[in-house]
Design brief:
Elements lengths: L1 H17 L2 E5 L9 E10 L18 E10 L4 E5 L3 E3 L10 E16 L5 E4 L16 E2 L3 E5 L7 E4 L2 E2 L12 E7 L1 H7 L4 E7 L14 E5 L22 E2 L4 E2 L1 H17 L7 E6 L12 E2 L3 E2 H17 L8 E6 L1 H12 L7 E4 L33 E4 L5 E4 H11 L8 H9 L21 H11 L1 H16 L3 E6 L7 H13 L8 E5 L14 H4 L3 H12 L16
Parallel strand pairs: 1-10, 14-17, 14-20, 20-21, 21-24, 24-25
Antiparallel strand pairs: 1-4, 2-3, 2-6, 3-5, 6-7, 6-8, 6-9, 8-11, 12-13, 13-17, 15-16, 18-19, 22-23
Helix pairs in contact: 5-9, 9-10
Length: 569
């Protein structure tokens, strides 16, 4: 009790000296050692969910503030001051007075001694897919109601009092298996054991045809908890219907279940191509996946996936194990990954279907031209500050600016540690900065673009530029293998880069590209080339769409003597 009174007295003094503040206690009962991490304070004016689940880039977001903590000793407090980074209000003093539900989370960092000599403090993925609000081992407080007064000089007191639970591992079934391997390449890079995993959907009859080897269908996307869009039982007739805010549909959960069951019936039916389909788990210290390329900041994930994980899967589950018998598909992040891996490993894969890919040309880095624009947040003007948009809907209505999205990331974690979209692009594409963290493509507060970093991005990860630059060397290996699809009203303006890419691909010669680029009229993120169905349906059919398409198309791109029959029983 005496110790707690001393803590409160200290907090009161600090708060009085610096204006409005929150004092957060780390109890002895939650940790036996000092901790590093990002301390996040959230305030919400509704009770629909815990505040930690109400932070987003749209108009419905609630308030969040963040500070770094290092060597935080149990039994002591950390302060979140009026000048701490905030979103969407930038300071605590800007919050209107009223009743709020308050919650704090400590997103714990681990110390890494990387191969390049840099020592970094980063949040390791712990099986949740790099999400600060559900990461096992993170500390948090029980939400509590306060009456907030921005003019008061007395700090509010909050105590961390519980730990986020572990994530349950998925279980093997007759069709779906799971694999996890330690990567030698990534372990060497990070100086500690690093793992790659995958969820594997086996073809119908796999166990009854022990001598057959199968092609490999690689689905790229965000962190999968298990193999997605798969269900072996019909939709639950008693399921309480939900409402999809994105698609304005009631009962979308039941539609999803039925679509997943329909895929199971197709997969096990008589005419579906017999392939092994996999979804990769490669969450890391910066995001829910690695972008499947070699990166100066994240490590050699491209090599680790292509030369360690995939061969191991083919070895264990009887894959053909040749580049002609592998292909990739995916949307958004997965769309970029499918195209990037095809470009960087042209001999290892025999086709890619990239739907709504992340920016594949950096002259349209969503709405920013990294090579010509001076500022990412505002249009160039002598007298105006017109903000660039960050998110839109199919009618062009803006829900967030680019600066707002980046401000949220800065609150969640500095030094590219937010675990969100703009920071992972920076972590993957940038060189290592002087402090060991990713070099900033632009100043996170002002939006001023670093042209030296943009030049590095161009030569290493601008896929359109790289295809054009390297076409004399890789053209024969890539012709006919590239397919790109995007809605012309993509919510994140990803169609802009595809326009640039299409212009380049059409002009490629010796050989001609033979590439496919297609657009969905008024279609949002993530349209995938299906003109026959609305987006809310086609987004659930990636496997059945692209596996059947590839099985027919690949016949023109296989070596003489390739086995095209044994796996088509």
């Amino acid at each position: 009790m005496k110790k707690l009174l001393l803590v409160l007295l200290y907090a009161a003094c600090i708060g009085s000296a610096h204006g409005q503040a929150f004092a957060v206690l780390l109890p002895d009962s939650l940790s036996k050692k000092p901790l590093d991490g990002r301390l996040l304070l959230m305030l919400s004016n509704n009770t629909k969910a815990e505040p930690r689940f109400q932070i987003n880039g749209g108009p419905s977001t609630q308030l969040i503030f963040g500070v770094d903590v290092e060597n935080w000793k149990p039994g002591t407090t950390q302060m979140i001051q009026a000048n701490s980074e905030g979103y969407p209000k930038q300071t605590l003093n800007e919050i209107p007075p009223g009743n709020y539900t308050v919650q704090v989370v400590l997103h714990i960092y681990e110390t890494f001694k990387r191969k390049d000599g840099h020592v970094l403090k980063l949040p390791m993925d712990r099986g949740e897919g790099q999400h600060w609000n559900t990461a096992p081992g993170n500390l948090l407080s029980t939400p509590q109601l306060i009456k907030y007064d921005p003019y008061s000089d007395k700090p509010y007191f909050v105590s961390l009092n519980r730990t986020m639970p572990p994530i349950k591992e998925p279980q093997d079934t007759d069709y779906v298996k799971h694999i996890k391997i330690q990567s030698k390449l990534l372990t060497e890079f990070w100086g500690r054991p690093m793992y790659l995993g995958a969820h594997i959907l086996l073809p119908q009859g796999w166990d009854k045809h022990p001598d057959v080897k199968y092609p490999l269908a690689v689905y790229h996307g965000h962190f999968p908890a298990d193999f997605g869009d798969w269900r072996t039982i019909p939709a639950d007739e008693k399921l309480k219907p939900d409402t999809s805010e994105r698609f304005h549909i009631t009962g979308y959960n039941k539609i999803t279940q039925q679509e997943n069951y329909n895929f199971y019936k197709l997969w096990t039916g008589p005419n579906f191509p017999r392939v092994i389909a996999i979804e990769i788990q490669h969450a890391n210290q910066f995001y829910d996946d690695s972008y499947a390329v070699n990166s100066a900041n994240i490590g050699p994930y491209g090599d680790a996936i292509t030369y360690e994980l995939i061969p191991e899967i083919e070895k264990r589950f009887r894959g053909i194990g040749k580049g002609w018998a592998r292909f990739m598909y995916g949307g958004s992040t997965g769309g970029w990954e499918a195209l990037a891996a095809q470009v960087f490993y042209p001999d290892e894969y025999n086709g890619c279907y990239a739907a709504c890919p992340d920016p594949i040309s950096f002259d349209h880095y969503t709405v920013v031209d990294l090579y010509k624009d001076k500022n990412a947040y505002y249009l160039e003007s002598d007298f105006k500050e017109t903000p660039r948009p960050g998110m839109t809907n199919y009618l062009g209505h803006i829900s967030s600016t680019l600066k707002e999205l980046n401000q949220l990331e800065l609150v969640l974690g500095d030094k590219s540690r937010s675990g969100e979209q703009w920071d992972i692009w920076e972590a993957v594409f940038s060189p290592v900065g002087k402090d060991g963290y990713p070099a900033r493509i632009w100043d996170k507060k002002t939006g001023v673009i670093n042209k030296d970093i943009a030049a590095y991005w161009k030569e290493h990860f601008d896929l359109t530029h790289i295809i054009q630059r390297d076409w004399p060397k890789i053209g024969e290996k890539l012709k006919g293998k590239i397919h790109v699809y995007v809605g012309d009203m993509d919510n994140y303006y990803l169609n802009n880069a595809v326009y640039s890419a299409e212009d380049v691909l059409k002009k490629l010669k010796n050989p001609a590209c033979g590439c496919e680029v297609d657009y969905g009229d008024r279609a949002e993120h993530c349209w995938n080339g299906d003109h026959s169905q609305p987006n809310y349906i086609s987004r659930l059919r990636y496997h059945q769409m692209f596996i059947t398409k590839w099985a027919e198309e690949m016949k023109s791109r296989v070596p003489k003597g390739a086995d095209l029959t044994s796996w088509k029983y």
